[in-house]
Amino acid sequence: METARQRQSRANRGFIWAVALSILVHAGGIGGAVYAQKYADRGAKVVTSIPVQLVRLGKKRDPKLLPRRIAPPPAPKAPDKTIDLTPDDPKKPPKKPEPRPPERAPTLSSAAERLLAGQADPDLDQAMQNLDDPEGDPNGDPMGNATEAINPASGYALEVSRVLKANYAVPDLIPPSQRRFLEAEVVLFVERDGTISRFEFIRRHPNALFMGALEALLGRIRLPPPPPNLAADMRDTGIGVVFKP
Amino acid sequence: MAVPDARDMGGGPPSAAAGEITSVLRWDFDVAAALKVLNPKGYLADPTKGGLAAASIKWSDWVSVGAEGLVQAGVTATSNSLRADMRFYDVGTGRQVIQKTYEGRPEDARAFAHAFADEVVYQLTGTKGIFRTQICAVKRTRTGRELWVMDMDGSNARAITNNGSINILPSWSRNGREIYFTSYIRHNPNLYAIPVGGGKPRLVLGETGLNTGGQEAPSGDRLALTLSRDGNSEIYTVATNGSHLKRLTKEWAIDSSPSWSPDGRQIAFVSARFGDPHIFVMNADGSNVRRVTDRGTYNQTPDWSPKGDLIAFTARDERNVFDIFTVNPTTKEIRRLTQDQGNNEEPSFSPDGNHIVFTSTRNGDSHIFIMAVDGSNPKRIGRSGAFSTPAWSPYILTP
Fold this sequence. Notes:
The structure holds 2 protein chains of 2 kinds.
Chain A: H1 4-43, H2 108-116, H3 123-130, H4 155-167, H5 176-179, E1 184-190, E2 196-203, H6 208-220, H7 231-236, E3 239-243
Antiparallel strand pairs in A: 1-2, 1-3
Chain B: E1 7-8, H1 16-31, H2 59-64, E2 69-77, E3 82-90, E4 95-104, H3 109-125, E5 134-140, E6 145-151, E7 158-159, E8 167-172, E9 178-183, E10 190-195, E11 202-205, E12 211-216, E13 222-227, E14 234-239, E15 246-247, E16 255-260, E17 266-271, E18 278-283, E19 290-291, E20 299-304, E21 311-316, E22 322-327, E23 334-336, E24 344-349, E25 355-360, E26 367-372, E27 379-381, E28 387-392
Parallel strand pairs in B: 1-2
Antiparallel strand pairs in B: 2-3, 3-4, 5-6, 5-28, 6-7, 8-9, 9-10, 10-11, 12-13, 13-14, 14-15, 16-17, 17-18, 18-19, 20-21, 21-22, 22-23, 24-25, 25-26, 26-27
Helix pairs in contact in B: 1-3
């Protein structure tokens, strides 16, 4: 007859074997994983970034011609003074109309419009001559560029965007290379007199300097008064603005 | 660079002189290009608190906004006197680098600010500042064209000729005291010299035909100029008193617009000897002529940099637009400085060789602009009137 002590001893041995087996299985698993990882690293390709740039294809520039600048010409600076938002005094005489801009060389669009309207157009040849002949390089030219598609805002929203942009100064600490990525979406609740009663950001930018300066601007600026037919909406539901400095 | 508002040391609101000093300092450092002026809207420090001394400056405010240099100015102004105390600090170390005190009349505010900006630029770059230099240009008037002289920022503009005739092509003497120019006052286009402050012009040369483009040699003892006394425009040299005339070029085509190299050994000029006008260089005695531009079809108005490494010139491109270019006279490499902004013409180097003054029609009429030598940072100077052929003065030391 097996005694209780013997049964207990056999059970203990079984437990010890089970623990040892478990340790072996786990150790084997971990070792296998490490080995597999090492093996996988040895076989993996090195991933490198591929610098790319926008290029422009086209015919080579005639070496006898004067060089063109690679960098685009400097953009005109924003006006130093903020925009005068005070409403016109009804007692004041109306402002004189702006002088007509000087005549410009005919454009293809104006010439084409007249042509499509069936009118004889002596300017068409001139307009065709004014068209740029794209130059570049069959293999791509570093002068290549791309234009950004801009969604044209309209009406009051456009005016609000314009005023915000004219009054916003990008903090100097933000490097120029980062400035083109700055963007935030905000809903402005505008009173009838143009005061911003409150604003809520729909989309914030992670750059705290940019956001801080924008919040400061929204806290102090006064917008043009909304058109009467929109005044209630501007006050109650607000107007959404995507702000890019 | 941070330039907070100059303070009125009397404790009141900033005076007009303080405001003028602030704006001049900011403009000067902005022109200097290498010294980027931080936008004052971003300053954390309260301009009304603290003093000018290092001990009263909260440096963390300036470190936080990214300033590496700080200019502090304090002004004490009365109705007939002005005292300006200006200091330049290295923000990183909190060390005062320059301290200057200027005393004079209230109208000296601009000159004080320019003088201090010159000090800062010299301290930081090792090159003399250009902010007390001047520009002479031709202004179109109802009756003709007169010479005007202005500070390099366009202020203090005043006419130095007023003869109702056509006065053109100004060029500074090397000591900055006289300006050579061509005038039709005696009907023939003769070469004259006039003191910078104005006065009676001195006839330098009155040969039959053109007497134009007189430019004084670096030695100051002779001029190179264009004469047509023999029927065709050619380059000559002549002593500054009009004697010792010597012909340097002899070509069937037009040779004109001489400009000395800074060492006085060579002369750049325009010649159409191969058909189209191009920029050429010759030794000062007329020997060893070589062509330095082989691109474009209409290159003119060369001006040799005081550094000697570049010749700036005007060229008409294939779109029939005039723009400013530079060419390295050794490598013949041409670089474009202006593009797609009206016609840009008649470059003249600043005495440090880092800037160029020129005329541009980008805003409509022909106005004077300055830009860095790489074409960046263009700024219009002067406000009213149509100007042409600007010439940048040499260094002029004013008290």
